[in-house]
Design a protein that fits this description.
heterodimer, A: mainly alpha, ABC transporter involved in vitamin B12 uptake, BtuC, 75% helix, disordered N terminus, B: alpha/beta, Rossmann fold
Chain lengths: 325, 508
Amino acid sequence: MTDISKEAMMPSRSFLSQDAIQVFYRLLAALLICAVLAVLSDSFLSLGNILNVLRQASLTFFIASGLTLVVLTAGLDLSVGANVALSACIAGTVIHKTGSPALGILTGLACGGIVGLLNGIMVTALRIPSFIATYGMLWVLNGLTYWYMAGETLHGFPAGFRQIGSGYLFGLPIPVYLLLVFLGIGTLFAQRTIWGQEIYAIGANPVAARLSGIPVARRLLLVYAVSGTMAGLASIIFLSRLNSAEADIGESLTLPAIAAVLIGGTSLFGGVGTVFGTFIGALILTLVLNGMNLLSVSANWQPLVTGIIVILAVWLDMKTRRRAQ
Amino acid sequence: MSSAALAIEPASPTPLLELRGISKEFPGVKALDDVSFAVFPGEVHMLLGENGAGKSSLMKVLCGAYRADAGEFYYKGDKVAISSTADAQKLGIAVIFQEFSLVPHLDIAQNIFLGREPKGRIPGTIDRRKILADARRVLGTIGFEIDPSTTVDKLGVAQQQMVEIAKAISQNARILVMDEPTAALSDRETELLFALIARLKADGVSIVYISHRMAEVFALGDRITVMRDGRRIDGVRPPDVTPDQLVRMMVGRNVDMTYPRNFADQPGELLLEVKGLSSSTGISDINIEVRRGEIVGLCGLVGSGRSEVARAIFGADAVTSGEIIFDGKAISGEPDLAARRGIALIPESRKSEGLALLRSVSDNLVVSALRKLFPSGLFDQRSAQRTSDGLIRQLRIATPSARQTVGLLSGGNQQKVVIGKWLAAGSKLFIFDEPTRGIDIGAKSEIFALIDRLVAEGAAALMISSEQVEICHVCDRAYVMREGRIAGHLTRSELTEENIVRLGMHHA
């Protein structure tokens, strides 16, 4: 029977899936960076520093986790940073006006979500490439935020609200708990729900996904809305941690989030990557920047190092995947 | 059949090109195993074999894209090396792949002389007049009358193929390798290609011709080499063999060339009713009925609107007027709605429209059935793989496991995965668009057996095919399309190739 002989001849896939292998390599890289920093700097392994790294990584992760879903569909959301700024300013205003943190949090999340949904509508109904739609949205949001804030700074929020970003519970910063919760939810959503599977399928081949009966437009709307809502969540943490909001806070957030996604092994071509990988990506990025601070390397070098890590990570990914094919 | 009885006497004593003992191995796969192969001047040498038999690998070794691990090359009796595409080009070997290598927005002349453009007086420019004159001359030698300043993206498939051939001829190709050149051509275009092949042959050009179509093999071939599992099985001459014998050599077992079909005495209840359907893609006033237990053919020339009808029924193209009634209820909307109601589309290009090639067999098999398999919305990889394992056994998909990347399977097995995903979804109407394109003969009859079983169990099928033989053997009845409309309907007793062609032809 020729079928059987063909079967024997075909290269078989290893037991671990490609995704698992990629995440494993990244964990190794993160541990290696930790080991190097532990040797080079006495203060790296202090509890305070480690918690600081985790807290910093969490902010990048919140934005990057939603972005991961967008990138999994072969899209991109360039508006996340600007979305954080607008959501933070609106949420801050609501808290100031009403004195209710709960209302402020809800408004921040809603603002982020609505912006995401608008991105989704541009991508699905108007068929504008996501890169361009969200790039335009970035400018629109910046414009709105600058107009709304008119150069003002919001400052001083209730102590209870500030606990979200700077408080501790059983010795761990609260953002770290939130990080674990959303890492869990994100991973479950992507790996263990049928929507997650459909998102991977859309990224792998959008035409085949549509002709396989997947409601592609609805899933894309969901994905962009989730990305926006996560930006809304990040805006709350940001607001609560800094205890202030200005119009320009989002400008330094988008590119690191994209870097975390890429370092985390999610392919810009879609269909490949994990939320957990993005977490490791955010961690590696934060670790390197933290290490450079500890070793008193000038901050001017940080963008260059980030760029090299992104290029290196993507190149190694493509190399190992090509070998696996 | 003994190969000794069919020993070949060469047309001329020295082959133009001879390959001896060529082997090529990839990790885990022996693509070519001690293959010897000779091309004589001015002959058409047919290369036959199922998908995965090693034809493509042999072709790539010939043109220098692959480097053979072992074996020798002889050109007019002298030992030569082919270790790069440049080597092959120097020996006058040119390949016309199925996917053309033309630059769409350049014109015909620029494409023919790409990288070899005659230089103009000002450095960095092209001598426009000379390139056009040269192109006209080359086009003239192959009898292709067209303005060489036409950009390639305005050309049809057949014309692009002509440009590819012109390009090869302009490089003084003496051996032209063609990979299924008629796969995308109409009958008329095929005739023109055959005429050109005869002309090239008369000029002493040798042609290595890969084909899946038996009729071509006998119409064109001077000699036939059959390959299977990376080995050369036999070399024969057309008058000495029958199609059945060739098929047996290709598959290594007996395959029933008459497609399996158990016709039902009575068609079942009405499943699909299309009334006056028009769509944005140019089909108009389509009326079709499909009953349970039926395989209904949808024929006509390529471009007559068959695929567009399939896409409109499935919701993939916008319907502008008319009605689709499925299982008693009107249906309109996106493909997800049609799929949920029980319509399945097995698209023509399975790689670009049917599969996520980089994902696993399992991922692809369950993608349309996620809601059915996991009603809670929670996905379970193990349960998905169990379902996939069942389908892999049922459809006899040759894959090491459900985790295998689907892009690594052969064409026939990929097609089974596309069908399998709709079996998992429990579809009732299967719309097949060219279900056997690019699939080897063994897998073909398996797929027809599968369709037969599906309709016997109460499903129905609407089948588009350019292979009229297949339609005639398999279908209960057929609609024939012409220029976006239904030109006629043929019952089982009227269903002949002649009738299909007569209805499908454009009237002068």
